[in-house]
């Protein structure tokens, strides 16, 4: 069964750090872009950061200089190092990945269920 599973969320004080991980598992031919999105209560989901399989990254302006996305293509894993966290970073963080699979050989975007990050003032 193909799935994306996030981990690493939790409660942290403002100024602190967290590292999120997301592992893709199942029958996968290849993983293309992987990324992180977040959704705060009462707000729309927004992009946080993405990274191509070749290592090109893209960040939301609100996290530039504080968050770092990285990935391990061998492990089909994407990470999000979050530093200098602010209360406004509080949200459910979900990863997604565009993957080529036996069912979707041309690629399909899959989503994880999310991990909650809470930043206290």
What does this structure look like?
The structure is a single chain. This protein is mainly beta and 121 residues long. The chain contains no helices and eleven strands. It has strands spanning 3-7, 10-13, 18-25, 30-39, 46-51, 57-59, 67-72, 77-82, 91-100, 108-111, 115-120. The strands form two sheets. Strands 2, 4, 5, 6, 9, 10 and 11 form a seven-stranded mixed β-sheet that branches. A hairpin with a 7-residue loop joins strand 9 and strand 10 (108-111). The relative contact order is 0.32.
pLDDT averaged residue by residue: 97
Supply the number of helical segments. Answer: 0
Poorly predicted sequence stretches spanning 5 or more consecutive residues: none
Beta fraction: over 45%
Notable characteristics:
seven-stranded mixed beta sheet, four-stranded antiparallel beta sheet, elongated, 11 strands, mainly beta
């Amino acid at each position: 069964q193909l799935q994306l599973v996030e981990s690493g969320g939790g409660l942290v004080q403002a100024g602190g750090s967290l590292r999120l991980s997301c592992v893709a598992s199942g029958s996968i031919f290849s993983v293309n872009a992987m990324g992180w999105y977040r959704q705060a209560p009462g707000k729309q989901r927004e992009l946080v950061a993405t990274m191509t399989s070749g290592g090109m990254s893209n960040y939301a302006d609100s996290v530039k200089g504080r968050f770092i996305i990285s990935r391990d293509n061998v492990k089909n894993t994407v990470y999000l190092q979050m530093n200098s966290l602010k209360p406004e970073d509080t949200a459910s963080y979900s990863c997604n990945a565009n993957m080529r699979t036996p069912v979707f050989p041309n690629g399909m975007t899959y989503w994880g269920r999310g991990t909650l990050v809470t930043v206290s003032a």
